[in-house]
Amino acid sequence: MLEEKSNCPVSRPQTCGRRTDKETEPNSRGTSNAQAAPAAVSAQGNWADTEKEHIRNVAIIAHVDHGKTTLVDQLLKQSGVFRENQEVAERVMDSNDIERERGITILSKNTAVTYHNTKINIVDTPGHADFGGEVERVLKMVDGAILVVDAFEGTMPQTKFVLKKALAMKLPIIVCVNKVDREEARCDEVVDEVLELFMDLDVDERQLDCPFIFASAKLGRSGTDPEHIGDDMAPLFNAVLDFIPAPTGDPEAGTQVLISTIDYNDYVGRIGVGKVSNGKISVNQEVVIVNAHEPEKQRKVKVSSLYEYDGLNKVAVKEAGVGSIVAISGISDIHIGDTLCSPEAPEPIPFQKISEPTIAMTFSVNDSPLAGTEGKYVTSRHLRDRLFKELNTDVSLRVEETDTTESFKVSGRGELHLSVLIENMRREGYEFAVSKAEVLYRTDSKGRKTEPMELAYIDVPEEFTGIVIEKLGSRKGELQNMYPITGGYTRMEFTIPARGLIGYRGEFMTDTKGNGIINTVFDEYAPYKGDITFRKQGSLIAFESGEAVTYGLYNAQERGTLFIGPGEKVYSGMVVGQSGKTEDVEINVCKKKQLTNTRASGSDEALRLTPPKILSLEQALEFIDSDELLEITPESLRIRKKILDPTLRKRAGFRKE
Fold this sequence. Notes:
Blueprint: H1 33-36, H2 38-44, E1 55-62, H3 68-78, H4 97-102, E2 109-115, E3 118-124, H5 132-138, E4 144-150, H6 157-168, E5 173-178, H7 187-200, H8 205-208, E6 212-216, E7 221-223, H9 234-243, E8 256-265, E9 269-278, E10 281-282, E11 286-291, E12 294-302, E13 305-310, E14 313-316, E15 319-320, E16 325-329, E17 338-341, E18 359-365, H10 380-390, E19 398-401, E20 407-412, H11 415-427, E21 432-435, E22 438-439, E23 442-443, E24 449-461, H12 465-474, E25 478-485, E26 489-497, H13 498-501, H14 504-511, E27 517-527, E28 539-542, E29 546-547, H15 550-556, E30 560-562, E31 569-570, E32 574-579, E33 585-587, H16 617-623, E34 628-632, E35 637-641, H17 646-656
Parallel strand pairs: 1-3, 1-4, 4-5, 5-6, 28-33
Antiparallel strand pairs: 2-3, 6-7, 8-9, 8-17, 9-16, 10-15, 11-12, 11-17, 13-14, 13-16, 18-20, 18-21, 18-22, 19-20, 21-34, 23-24, 24-26, 24-27, 25-26, 28-32, 29-31, 30-32, 32-35, 34-35
């Protein structure tokens, strides 16, 4: 429980005048007096006994894989959202197939639980830097945040990123040190790291005075002492009620609802999600849409449907008051950052602009000889409609028309951001081609070319530090810091151009034999660092179209590493492997053995092929060069040259030189 004595070096924080220590002491049932008798608290005059006082809005923020979604699972289970005998999948909030497969959260999710007569609206946010746009906007919906930190890994790049955003909005923070059941857990050191991070971010004393809860989300246990955690999540629930303030706002004022996220449904279209900041909102109410960044925007609309969150469901309601997180449908042209106001006083709520994309790819219609044989949606109209539909829910994405109707420039926050979109489209039956990822350059006030820089935090066993420093050095990375951490690992901190990291992750895993961990976060735009040589090896290119056969592949494998096996369809200009040399090599993988009278019956069977290297989507995106494309279909991934004809390709190469 929160009221246990803790051996942790962090003392129980002050409650900033919201409640006295006496009010939060445990009663005979093990709950705090504040929760057991809310009426008694209101009698003290600290806060009015109104509906909004029984609401808490909180976001779960953390670095990737520190256990946010698992923590939400336990809060849902222990608040009675599920039946006792109900089978519930792990990470129930990760509803997207890719989220489940990769174990990451891509889109922020809303849910709500009830604890001690208080409704707690919970927003689960992504931890990966590529989806930082999700975190930035949902923080406008909440009145506090739970910062989850791994008891072994400690503070990581994205921990700093999300905490900085939350503190900038003056949100109170509860620190949850998770995974304390790990053998390598180092709770005391992690607490010190968190406090150092708070101080590095130059917070005021009130924000520094935050509670620390120690938990094992996997086991569903928490407490204020890492050595003696309780049997449930009650200490964390109580911390939310004690330290996250009730929503502020004037129930008697005009309506103000800031749209912080957009959901989409094929049946009802766009759904705006946001918090009622002032007044109330009801079904069939006439409101005006205004936007702080678009002063000229002012349009009257009608609220046709209104929902609140209850567990994992949206529940239709007639009216919602201050502090409620609501979903509003029936407004076709609603966007993130819009404020719904009463027509009498249309006052927009300030909204921080989402960070701009730093990386771009060209998505184009597939024009290979095998085009249209595997996909359901293959035309430029299909491609255009799908990309612009993605803008309904993804605020960090940009889609632009190009000189040709066959291609579109798609910009995002990183390779993972764009690869998730590609994978989703592929599973939906789309067939298209994408170019190599390129960074988006800018020009500064002095007319200099600038590029996005990343901070890279790398943890590797000591024996691999040399190869990592060498490889990142060749990619214009600069080592800023290096020190030993627990478990025989060394942590290195680099500043490196974003383009220097394109295609590096696969190489990094090979260099460190799978033992390395790399995390990156956007730093700033800085002057261009110079040219970088990416791939030192060329491609093996199919010379003719047909079907790959064992004999042709056997001769080809001596020239490099193959990506295909026998029986696969190929075409002239298709990349079938990686060359052992720096230049591209054309090979004939369809070549059959010459038939003769002296041929032995079992000679073909005697040819032994090395198993091909099958590239994943990420590996293929990392491998392709600037003169190549990745052909995406629901069934296949094929790398090809942009110019398929070998003669025209050579001419283009000469012109480039």
